[in-house]
Structures are given as C-alpha cells and as structure tokens.
Give the backbone structure.
Amino acid sequence: VGKPSSFFDQKTTTAIFSVAYGILRRLNICYRTFSLKHNEENK
C-alpha cells in the first residue's frame, strides 16, 4: 500500500495550509470589523 505519510504529500499539505490561512484571514477581518463597530458605539 505504501507509507501512511504518503497521504500527506506536498499538495495535500499546501491545500490544508491555504484553506486554514483563508479561514484565519476571514476570522481576522470579521474580528476587526466587529471591534471597530464596538469601539464606535462606546464613544
């Protein structure tokens, strides 16, 4: 069958990291927008 680690080849690792990076960016943008709105309301 081959090594189990062959499942996590370069393409799979790159895909996982790109997806995770996209999710983190989206969360970061949402968090910034939320905190900006929150700060405006507190003024």
Q: What stands out?
A: The helical segments are 10-42. The two ends are 63 Å apart (CA to CA). The chain is about 75% helix and 0% strand. The mean pLDDT is 85.
